[in-house]
Model the fold of this input.
Amino acid sequence: MRDLLLKSGYTIDGVRERLGDVAATALSREELVPALRATRELDPLAVLIRHFWLGVEVPEDLVPAELAPLKGYHVQPWGDDGYLVSDRKVRPGDAPLRPDHVVGAGGASANLAQLASRRPVERALDLGTGCGVQVLSLAGRATNIVATDLNPRAIELARLSWELSGISGVETRVGSLFEPVDGELFDLIVSNPPFVISPARRFTYREVGGDSFCRDLVRQAPRFLNPGGQAHFLANWTHVEGEDWRDRVGGWLGETGCDGWVVERDVQDPAEYVELWLRDAAEQGTAAYTELYDQWLGWFEEQKIEAIGFGWISMRQAESLDPVVRVERMTHQVQLPVGDYVDQVLDGIALAHRLDDLDEARLRVAEGVLDERIGLPGAEDPSRIVLHQTRGLMRSTDVGTVEAALAGVCDGELALGPLLNVIAELVGGDRVDAEQLRPLIAEGYFTV
Done:
């Protein structure tokens, strides 16, 4: 089956080239007509796209007999030469989702794959594997992989995904949270959990009630990490009236003993959130839509939930009595994949927290940092100085003349204290306390 799919050109590049930009963009809006027009000739590639990607009927004799075991499933090219097998995506007018529906890969799956550390590891755990998408990226850097899911059908389809992708040797377990791997340790844990916050648990693949499932996932993870091991999760969390969401989510990591990094990438009001997930289940326009919408909003109101956040949670087993957790909102574009430099991000957060004597530290400006100066034409001094990262997290921050001068001269050769003394003399101001530079180290502008 794998050879036939590859030879037919049923790959990411092959599908993209055949459909073109207009049809691909229309599909992101759940509009099929442009894609149907692009595949109306019913040549072998068009048949595969229609049958396995678009989920529309084609003459049965046009589908190769070798692919019969895949009939009725969504078969999605993924990565360079991988494939994912899942239940077909429902669209308005389709029958309701079955409770053990296995969802295909989407934006969240790609986000997690982009987030996880790229360093080679011995043992990796994909908790809640679904259709098996994370294993496709783990296979190149983990010697041993364990994949779990509460849904036995998910494990069945995930195995088929891996076989179609040429991946073997993955251990599978059925069960909730960490129960299937009790007593085991891993160097890397990834999970795209069922994080949808809702009053009813109608669909196993996405809903678990409130955000307590994500909280429990975070709190239990350290017991399954080797020293220096990392865990990367996607999560939703609630913004509750009278609470700061940073305190809420940061508190999940507060007693884990791990260094942590939490990033809120998006936030939605309750109505936006409900509409998103009712559309996801193709319930918009159905007879039950208004009732489901109203019940969901009413539950949010009872729980005093004002908004719902979506983002990343990364943890590293620091084995420290003084772990550090950074919680922030970051909605701008960042360099992908984050996994290429997430180790450096965690290093910077820990370093800024644990450096004892900053005056003795030998700082150097991070690669790709630019000094941008803004002012009126002809003015002697700028009205604003900005340090801007041109790679990685692409942060920008306003700084003073001392920090800007430091960025221009620190190269790891001289200790910070003497450098600050010289800069103070040159700019004619008071010497800056080295402690004020900890945030710039934590955010990756300076390294040691």
In short: The chain is about 35% helix and 20% strand.
